[in-house]
Each structure stands twice: as C-alpha cells, then as structure tokens.
UniProtKB/TrEMBL annotation:
InterPro entries, per database record: MFS_trans_sf
Top-rank taxon: Bacteria
Name of the molecule in the record: MFS transporter, DHA2 family, multidrug resistance protein
Any one cellular-component term (Gene Ontology): plasma membrane
Keywords per UniProt: Membrane, Transmembrane, Transmembrane helix
Membrane-crossing residue ranges in chain numbering: 7-26, 46-66, 78-101, 107-125, 166-186, 201-219, 231-249, 269-294, 306-326, 332-354, 366-385, 405-425, 487-507
Subcellular location: Membrane
One example GO MF annotation: transmembrane transporter activity
Keyword Membrane recorded: yes
Main subcellular location: membrane
Protein's membrane topology: Multi-pass membrane protein
Length: 522
C-alpha cells in the first residue's frame, strides 16, 4: 500500500470525486422529462428520440474518446472537459426548440466520456498498483451506482424549487468544482498514456449506422407495433446486414474497433450474456416509476426520495462483495446472492401492485434491488475482463456496454413497454366484458356513482356519462396493475432460474482469475 500512503488519502478521494459529475451528466434530468416536454411542446415520438439520442451519442463516442484522451495532456483534458460541459449545459438552457436542446445535451454526454477517461487515468497509474483489482472495480461501481441515485434526487429536488433549469444549474456547479479540484490535484500537464494515434474510422462509421438503427427501433418500435410495420422489418434486415458488413470489415482491419477475437474467450461471451441479463432484470425499474407516477400519483421528488432506499442495499452489498472477491470467494456464491436479491425484488413487488399503498411499502423491495446491483455489477465487470489481454480491453468493454445498455436497457426497455401495453389491453378487454347487467357488483357501483353526480346537479344523461367514465377509469387502473403483476411474476422466475442452473451444474465454483489494468474498468 506504499503508493496509497505516498499519494495520501486526500489525493485519492479528490481524484475519485472528480469522476462523479461526468458519470452523472445526464442523470440530473431523469425526473424532469414532463417539464422539458411541456416547455418545448414536442410530440411524444419526437421527445422519445430526444431522450434516447444523448445516451446513444455517449455510447458512440466511447471508442473515439478513449483514443483522443490518450493524446491530450491530462490537466488540459480535464479542465477542457469541465469547461465545455458548463458551456454546453448552459447553451441547452437557451435552446429555442427541442432539437437544439437535444444537440447540446448530446455534446454534454460526449464530453462526459472524455471527462471520465481523464479523471480515471491518474487513479489507475498512481494508485492501482497498490490495489487488488476487485477493490478497484468495487470502488468504481460503488461511486457509479451510488452517485446516480443521489444525482437523480438532487436533480428532482432542485427542479421542484423553480423548474427544470435549476437541475442543470446544479450540474454546472459540480463542473465548477471539478475545475477547482483539477487545478489542485493535477500538478503536471502530461499525457502519460500517449501513443501513436490509430483509429478504425471505417469500423466507427459502421457502429454509428448500427446504433442509429437501434435508436430507430427504440423510438419507433412501440408506436409502429414492431413487426406489424414494414419499416421495422426493413430496419431489422439492415441491422443484420450491417453486422455482416462489420464481420467482413474485421477480417481486413489490423486493429478493429471491436475485435471479434475477444469472443474467443469464453468468459467474454458468458459475461456479455450476463451483462444483458442483469440489464434486463434492472430495467424493470421503469415499471415501478410508472406505477408511482401513473397509478399512485407520486410527484418526481417523492419518487426520487423513495428510490434512495436502493442506496441502503448498495452500501451493504458492494463493500461486502468486494471484500469477498478480494478474499477469493467462489463466483457462484456472489452470483446466487445477486440473482436471489433480484428475485426477491420482483416477487415482493408482485404482491404490492394495488392502489393506495404507501411509500414505506417500497422500501424493502428497493433495498433488495440495491443488494442485487451491489452483488452482481462488480463481479460482472470483473468476470468479463478475466484473462483478456490489454490490446482487447476496449473490445471487451464495448461488448459489455452494447449488451447491457444498448440491447438490454434501451431496446429491451422499448420492447417491455410494448409488452406491458399489449397485456394491459388484454386485461382491460377482459375486465370490460365483465361490466354487464349480469355483474351485480359493477351495476351497483355504476348506480351509486350515477346518484352521486345527480346529487351534484348534473342531468340524467350527464350523470350516466360521468358514472360510466369513472367505472372505465377504475377498470383501466385495475388492468394496468394486472399487467404489472404479470411482468413481475415472470421476471421473478427469470431471476431465480440462474440459481437453479448454477446449483444443478456446479458452475462458478472458483474464485476470480487474472484481471489486468484497463483505462476504464467497467
């Protein structure tokens, strides 16, 4: 631990704090979507694109950002990234329409990648030799997973003070702090990882086309009802063609953007599937936020505050799993604990989808969700990196990012939204068919509601319409709750399934193997 003592705890903490605003460049506006939508008056489809584009811009820029980051002296890089983030953030406040707002937000997302890289290099070069790799991966996941919920809460809180602009002002203050910290902690302006600049521009162009098609599917799939629309089928066909073109491209490129040789390592293939799997399990959180806002009527600040319960699980699981991995615990032990916690999260909420529950009813399942993230995310990042040589590190990282974020979170979330809508319609149709003269309970409810409106002074016709509308609204609420219950019952089974496989086949009965240092360990 000599390097740690030499640099000092203060330096280490300061350098880690520098990473936090860049990790959360887009998180502060998570709960502000309705305000932003109302401010610009965009259609829901246009706004869907505007919500997705900054995230896809960030993912697209990761490979180029890593290369550029190695060429520029670190002090200049981190100061430039902080200053540009403030500039682009501020520009978004003065956007005349949703398109310019998306443009500036996308630039903030792109710059954040460079900021993450610039803030991570000093930690890797100066302190990593003093750490066992599980400790470093644990620290990064602790910062990344923990800070995002805090930033979502602070963003919602500041937005509630005035409007959505206050959340962006809050982020600007964070980048100002980054500038001050960089002046203090970055003593020399050097580029210690500088190498000859070589970049797979053709592969990057193919990646852009690939992600553009995924963006189209995410934004348009649900409104076009997926394969019922020919344009969706054409997009999927082009997607397969682009994958084929890239596989040909790899054969004739010395250093491709994503080298398919990385998939010769079994743990990369399994790890990518694990990233996809955990992304799916974590992605059902959108159902909870929809339940809180759409059914229970919770405001943004209240939702963000309730979700802070996830931090309790994170603060328990990440240090514990990091310690166990450091002590070379079996992989299966961590996996089983994580999958079991995700299963408990889904099964508890399955029994709590009913109107009128309080905030405290969400605490236990969200704590289990935090435990699941804390157990599974560090081991996922470590396992997919195990035994992979440094020259394939970027390829390994991109395969994980695409698996979890692009396919599971983005595309999987869009498909989940469609599935919920279809199940909701199915249940609503079934419930509506029961609202007949033979259903005495429904008729009694209808008559009582009608008499209420008659006593309020409405005419016979108006009272009948209001009573039918009230009963229809109750039917709609009941159908969406049944749809949520269906989703969470299936997901609880999906979460517990890997545990059965691990136990039956005796998989993962070994500790983590060799993991080399990498520029960005996630």
């Amino acid at each position: 631990m000599g390097a740690l003592k030499k640099g000092g705890i203060l330096n280490l903490v300061g350098l880690y704090i520098l990473t936090i605003p860049f990790f959360n460049a887009l998180n502060v506006t998570t709960y502000d979507n309705s305000q932003i939508l109302g401010h610009f008056g965009a259609s829901t489809t246009v706004f869907a694109y505007c919500s997705y584009i900054p995230f896809f811009a960030m993912i697209t820029f990761i490979p180029l950002g890593l290369k550029i980051g190695k060429q520029i002296p670190l002090r200049t890089l981190i100061l430039s990234a902080s200053f540009l983030s403030i500039l682009f953030n501020t520009a978004s406040l003065y956007s005349i329409n949703i398109f310019w707002f998306t443009f500036w937000r996308s630039l903030v997302a792109i710059i954040s990648v460079t900021g993450i890289f610039a803030s991570m290099i000093p930690i890797i070069l100066k302190y990593n030799p003093a750490f066992n790799m599980p400790i470093m991966y644990g620290i990064i996941q602790f910062i990344l997973q923990g800070s995002q919920h805090l930033y979502k809460f602070f963003g919602a809180k500041f937005t509630s003070i005035h409007n959505w602009t206050f959340g962006i002002y809050f982020l600007n203050i964070n980048f100002l702090v980054c500038i001050l910290l960089a002046w203090y902690f970055y003593k020399k302006d050097l580029a210690p990882m500088k190498a000859k600049f070589q970049f797979d521009w053709r592969g990057w162009l193919i990646l852009i086309f690939f992600l553009a098609l995924i963006l189209f599917l995410c934004a348009e799939g649900q409104t076009r009802n997926w394969f019922s629309d020919p344009k969706i089928g054409i997009a999927v066909a082009f997607l397969l063609i682009i994958v084929g073109i890239y596989l040909i491209h790899v054969r004739f490129t010395k250093e491709p953007l994503i080298n398919t040789d990385v998939f010769k390592y079994k743990n990369v293939v399994i790890g990518s599937l694990l990233f996809f799997y955990t992304g799916l399990m974590n992605g059902t959180g959108s159902v909870v936020t929809g339940y809180m806002s759409g059914v229970l009527g919770f405001d943004a600040v209240y939702q963000a505050k309730i979700h802070l319960a996830i931090l309790i699980g994170l603060f328990i699981a990440i240090p514990l799993s990091t310690y166990l991995l450091y002590k070379r615990i079996y992989l299966a032990t961590i996996w089983i604990a994580g999958f079991a916690c995700y299963g408990m999260f889904h099964i508890i909420l399955f029994f709590r989808f009913y109107p009128g529950i309080t905030a405290t009813d969400f605490l236990l399942p969200l704590i289990f969700k935090g435990l699941a993230i804390g157990f599974l995310y560090p081991i996922s990042a470590l396992y997919i990196s195990e035994g992979v040589p440094k020259n394939l590190g970027d390829s390994r990282m991109m395969s994980g990012v695409i698996s979890r974020i692009v396919f599971a979170t983005m595309l999987g979330g869009a498909i989940l939204g469609t599935h919920i809508s279809n199940v909701n319609i199915h249940h609503k149709t079934g419930l509506s068919q029961q609202l007949s003269s033979a259903n005495q309970q429904a008729q009694t409810k209808l008559l009582n509601t009608k008499y209420y409106y008659l006593h309020q002074g409405l005419s016979e016709v108006e009272a009948q319409k209001m009573a039918e509308k009230s009963l229809s609204n109750q039917t709609s609420q009941a159908s969406i709750l049944l749809a949520y219950k269906d989703i969470y019952l299936v997901m609880s089974a999906i979460c517990f399934l890997p545990i059965i496989i691990l136990l039956l086949f005796g998989l993962g009965r070994r500790p983590i193997g060799r993991v080399e240092l990498e520029p960005i360990p996630f």
